[in-house]
Amino acid sequence: MTPPLGRIGALVPAATPAGRRGVGLVFAVATYGYALALALRAPQLARLDAAEALAVWAGLGLFWLAAVAPALVASPPGRRGARAFGARFRANGAAVAGLVLLVAALGASLLAPLLATADPLAIEAPETSRYQPPAPGHPMGTDRLGRDVYSRALYGARVSLGVAVLSALLAVLLGVVYGSAAGLWGGRGDEAMMRVVDGLLSFPRLLLVLTLVALFDNSVTLLVFAIAATGWMGMARLVRGEIARLRARGFVEAAVASGAGRAGVIVRHVLPNAIGPVVVAATLNAGAVILLESYLSFLGLGVQPPAPSWGAMAYEGRAALLSAWWVSGFPAAAITLTVVALNLVGDGLRDAFDTRAPEAARPSHSTLPPARGGD
Amino acid sequence: MARYVLRRLLHSALLVLVTLAVTFAVLHLAPGDVLSRYTAEGADPATLARVRRQLGLDDSLPEQFVRWLWSFLRGNFGVSLVHHRPVADILRETIPRTVLLTASAFLVQVALGVAAGVWAAARGGRATDRAVSGAALAIYAVPTFYLAYLLIMAFALGLGWLPTSGVTTAGADLTGLAALADRLRHLVLPVTVLGVASAAIVARFTRGSVLDALREDFVRTARAKGLGEGRVVWLHALRSALGPVVIVLGLSAPVLLGGAVVVEKVFAWPGMGALMVDAIFGRDVPVVLAVNFVGAAMVVACNLIADLCVAAADPRTELASTREAAPRARLRQAPEERP
Questions:
Q1: Which CA distances in Å does B45 have to A12, B48, B57?
Q2: Bridge partners of B86?
Q3: pLDDT of residue B255
Q4: Looking at the predicted structure, is the pLDDT value of residue B320 above 80?
Q5: What is the DSSP letter of B174?
Q6: Does the CB of B33 have a partner CB in chain A at under 8 Å?
Q7: What value does the mean pLDDT of chain B take?
Q8: In this structure, are residues A290 and A109 in contact, taking their beta carbons and an 8 Å threshold?
Q9: Do B280 and A301 touch (CB under 8 A)?
Q10: Cα(B49)–Cα(A84) distance, integer angstroms
Q11: What is the rounded distance in angstroms from the CA atom of residue A138 to the CA atom of residue A150?
């Protein structure tokens, strides 16, 4: 069976490595243009119908895969090639389970209008339908205003996952551009740029996001940008570190000496090597963003009611935790499961990118470690 | 060693300057006039012009920045727009409460996180390891405020063992040991929530770090010479893994301070985080900026302490970090991807 990434790589029309990278670059630009446009229209995300949402998410996902796949495929086959990569990922049961969960969550957010049994914002006659426990009519019960928790959780997935995916993508863009610029510049400029990164990393992220939300205005769009603006520093360090590493090995100098432009060297040699760690970091970052969004909603500065988001729902149900656990329990469980899934997938991707043996295959302490070849 | 300490001190001072510049930039990049953040709407234009002159807002940005820098470094953060008191005075009251909370949580995090991480690594791949690692991941993934409400429901409202919120019991006139016990009882739940949540992260890193150490040759040597598994793991492997672990503990400062915002809000703990949230709703810009700066300065200080601890324990650090600013560079993956 061909691993999915390999199949997508085969769909890329260009046959030469340079052509594949070119296609990847075009799609990367398209992904970010698209993500930016979506971020600007973020408030409307929760109101899309199924077909529109499907198009939006599928478009974003395909663009992203198309941007990443050529670089993965262009890496030396066998050791880091797509086939071995897919096999290593599939061998990791936890990571596959995480991926299944993640796809389920994305699917739920896409198909919300089809799966929902009620209007997420519709308030039923309060006296009779407030705080109804889970029952066939309301699989996850109803909340303080008699709204269907199940339907709200489905639509809330759009907001929570949308904010997470968009801000993670934007953070990757910022980090890659900034890190490449620092690495390209080198010397004192590089040093100064990285001190700025260190300085930004010194702020507790929540404080910085709160400040941005307070000083600018309070909308989902701003939320996406504020979260992205405080989440790109790790990415910049990764990319810049990769450049420094390759530079130390003489790669960059050799390529430049043989007539390649510095920017070209970075696009051609450095970024494909850095893509694995960047994808891993972006996945873990998305998990952190989902939690961050829930904290902002909890503090009253995130997604504003009545729009549903998992964080806002978990917070709204806190007053009835003893009498009506389902109001906050299901959204909190959704957050937890999604964050766990993102972390499992991230760890799985890291192990799959890492050419060392996956953790499960590592020796337990009772056996002697196997002799390592080559060192 | 002296040179290394000096370099780290200079680097930290530079970082504090950068954080000040960021704070200043955020204030001036935000839409709207800076003055409008400090005055009520509909103020008299002549008065506004006078205030503008007094605050020095007519000067060039670099001039303003230098003056602002100087006053911040001397601890002059201006006057709160809501409380009409110097921000420095408010911070003097709130910082100790936040430090009490975060420092206690830090102890919980060290004890629980490191122990769980080493214990899981020693059982690498077995069911107990998977259970501990899974639990750590699950705890990390639960929103802190929900965890807090669950614990309040169980231990405060359900069992009635602990108070739900506050620093002391309001109205109770306690003295001596009874007062101390009352304060401690109020501390238990917030510290548990904050400490357990960040211990989950520390446990994951400690586990990875010890697992790496367990694959080293000196561990094989230790086993080969017949040392007990407990000694191998807790003395030999942990000592080698301690560097990254201490760095991660230093890096947990922003996590604890960020978490304190949420925890203080849940438990009505009148510290810096609660002050920050109230200041944001009151558009109290001087307080917001001061809390940001103090938070960042605390983080810089914690990282400095962690780096110096590692350097003191491991002479290789000094040699390894001739160019890279911090031994942090040796971490396999920087633990920055968290809220």
A1: 64, 5, 15
A2: B79
A3: 84
A4: no
A5: -
A6: no
A7: 78
A8: no
A9: yes
A10: 69
A11: 7
Comparison of pLDDT for A24 and A243, the residue scoring more: A243
Residues 276-295 of A with CB under 8 A from B: 281, 284-285, 287-289, 291-292, 294-295
d(CA A112, CA A150): 10
**How far apart are the C-alpha atoms of B287 and B54, rounded to whole Å?**
20
Structure tokens at A171: 């953070």
Tell me the pLDDT tens digit for each residue of B248-300.
888 888 888 888 888 888 888 888 888 888 888 887 788 888 888 888 888 88
Distances (CA, A) of B30 to A174, A200, B7, B34, B69: 20, 17, 34, 8, 19
* Cβ <8 Å between B30 and A216: yes
Residue A71 near residue A28, CB atoms below 8 Å: no
Return the C-alpha torsion angle A302, A304, A307, A310, nearest 10.
Answer: 30
Which amino acid is present at A1?
M
Reported pTM: 0.80
Chain B residue with minimum CA distance to A210: B280
* Secondary structure of B29-51 in HEC code, one letter for each residue: HCCCCCHHHCCCCCCCHHHHHHH
**Min Cα–Cα distance to chain B from A89, Å:** 17
What's the angle, vertex CA A159, arms to CA A157 and CA A165, rounded to 5? Answer: 90
* Sign of the CA dihedral with A14 first, then A18, A20, and A21 last: negative
Q: Which residue has the tokens 């109804």?
A: A132
Residue A360's pLDDT band (cuts 50, 70, 90): very low
Residues of chain B with Cβ-Cβ distance to A284 below 8 Å are 337
| DSSP β-bridge partners for residue B79 | B86
DSSP H or E stretch at residue A160: helix A149-185
A163, A167, A203, A335: best mutation site toward chain B, by most B Cβ within 10 Å? A203
Q: How far apart are CA A169 and CA A161, in angstroms?
A: 12
Of residues A295, A328, A369, nearest to B339 (C-beta): A295
Is there a contact between A155 and A116 (Cβ–Cβ < 8 Å)? yes
Question: ω into residue A306 within 30 of 0, thus cis?
Answer: yes
Q: How many CB atoms lie within 10 A of CB B187?
A: 19
Query: In angstroms, rounded to a whole number, what is the distance separating the alpha carbons of residues B262 and B267?
Result: 9
**Do B91 and B77 touch, CB atoms closer than 8 A?**
yes
The ipTM assigned to this model is 0.81
Q: Are A150 and A138 in contact (CB under 8 A)?
A: yes
- Comparing A183-197, B24-38, B69-83, B204-218, which segment has the lowest mean pLDDT? B24-38
Dist CA A200 CA A212 (whole Å): 13
> What's the CA gap between A172 and A170, in Å, rounded?
5
